[in-house]
Amino acid sequence: MSVDTPAAPVPVPAPAQAPAYVVAVRALCDFTARAGDLDLRFVPTPTAQEGVAGHTLVTGRRGPGYQAEVSLCADFGPLHVRGRADGYDPDANRLEEIKTVRGEAAVPDNHRHLHWAQAKIYGCLLCRKLGLPGIDVAVVYFDIVGQREHPVVQHFTADALDAFFVQTCERFLQWAQAELAHRQARDAALARLAFPHPAFRTGQRELAQAVYNANRAGRTLLAQAPTGIGKSIGTLFPLLKAMPGQGIDKAFFLSARSTGRGVALQAAQALRSHGAQPLRVIELVARDKACEHPELACHGESCPLARGFYDRLPAARAAAREVAVRDRAAVRTLALAHGICPYYLAQELVRWSDVVVADYNYYFDRSALLYALTVANGWRAGVLVDEAHNLVERGRAMYTAELDPHALRDARRGAPPAVGRPLARLARHWSALARQADAAYEVLPEVPAPLLRALDDCCAAVLAHMTEQPASVAPALQRFYFDALHFSRLAEQLDANSLFDIQRPAVAAKAGRGNHARLCLRNVIPAPFLRPRFAAAHSVTLFSATLDPAAFYFDTLGLPADCAHVVVPSPFRAEQLSVRIASRISTRYARRGQSLPAIAALMANQFHARHGNYLAFFSSHEYLQQAVSNFTQVHPDIPHWVQSRGMDEAAQAAFLSAFVPGGAGIGFAVLGGAFAEGVDLPGERLIGAFVATLGLPQFNAVNEQFRARMQSAFGQGYDYAYLYPGLRKVVQAAGRVIRTQQDEGVVYLIDDRFAAPEVRRLLPEWWQIDPAA
Description:
Structural class: alpha/beta
Number of strands: 25
CATH topology of the largest domain: Rossmann fold
Radius of gyration: 29 Å
Number of domains: 5
């Protein structure tokens, strides 16, 4: 079916009393049983792997007749409630709900209330299934650190459990019926949805067809499509078209940058305005951007927006039904009107949204919210990964952990004795490891077991302290705790796809001062961590203008073997872009100082030949500042503006605002930075770019380890570690110039290495290159 052809009529819905709304026991209880404050003092919970291991250990201790993972379900009007009870002992007639905890921390009352609601629902379903008159229900808290069980047992009659089940379902039923009506209206609207513009742009239809087919087939898709063809709406539209026929519950649009999220929200709004009015859209932003009281802790005793959060949540949730596009500003308005936290309200609203616009982390990180909800609720999710070339570096960062000796020193300062002693033991093991050699950089095959045990002891001690005296925990101690916990968990999964390295400052190494060494678990190939994320989705589409060569992304990201691949030809004509290689200039590190006068002269000559707005890209802030200093001394008459370190969103917007139609000047920026991709400056807003250097990662000990690991895994160490990442930055930066089929401009590639055949073959085919600029 063509992506812009209306689908077949939506089937007539089943009678009202036929089970039609499927809800997991956990989701049902989340909705009905949560009460009181938002309390995040106990966020440090076991990992999913630790939880599974804990459940396996507890159930393995039971007798031979014990039944683990008991599938249960029941209907209540249109509700179909389903789930798996952790275990049932027929001899003792005891159902168990197992909850793993890290350390002997007390579980807050509102969490216990939720756990008991789940256990009682499972008890009811089991009594119905087996015809039992009553049953013992146990919530078993298992401490994965001490390997101890703490069971709490109550006996219930089947009638009492049944009454609780009915009461719970009745509380949820009205909401479920409204959600059923919304889903039917949404799917009917999406089935009729037409493309919101008069016609597809060149290449846009081919991209949309590939995305639609991938979602129909439930496959992963790697799609390379040129800049400027409208990839955001060209991917979101076909995914929405596929949702009714494939029973897709959610569309996740994931971006590496806030600008990408903004474009996705605009695309969703355009689709709503052209026929998809029932569509609910939610934007998730980082906690530091959404938090109203960053100086306060996330619990009711500290933050007023956490106090009574779950008591006020139902009213806020109901009000959100009247707000279809819940971007950052809309969620904040909703939250503050009901006196609750905007950040966590947005997370609650994910369950009742159709399109979720968020950062990569929300699906691909270790503790990713969207991935966890997808697995827990059995959602069919269609995932769109914008500017997917960024996922390699971002994936590495998600699964990398570093321990800073200065952070340990700060954590020890003022720590209570119960915490100070394990921190001191950790410091001794740390120093002993660092003193084993005096090399400034060293890679070890594994993290020594004594260091890991000391690290686990520290985590347990800090957690116990946080539990007993949450108000007295120093920020430095808390920060170190989270870093240590992340490091410890990644250490359990260390293999050839990551490396454990030690970095010693040269002075400290010579002096034998091991306590100055940094310890890092550094991910090189994120594929093993990302594969489960691809597998959990109905379909994942990764799209970008720079996904060449495809084998690099297949290998490093761990794409499925049946992943489809499409390359959309460029709609632009070669005569639109003059590409010139400045082959007489070398920007190699040793010659950068000598390159500056020649680069300044080249830029000035081009500016005087054609007045307008230009971007000049340099490989680092240091090189950038050198270039600016040299250029302004020689050409003070040419307007310029400069990217600085750590620019916030307002400063970035101010930088871009200088690129006005009819303007004339040069913006200096960092290659691979905020202005090198995802920036749209069509027409006269930008008529040219200068790209100094190939963008190759710095030659150092760490990157040489990356090269060696890539060589071992894929046989292309230099290309995978240096050449492909560098040339991708260059092509992205050059792609800022031509954004529409009416644009014309020039790009200077400044370095003699751009003329080499192995480099030229990685540049876009539609470019016609002048090698003698």
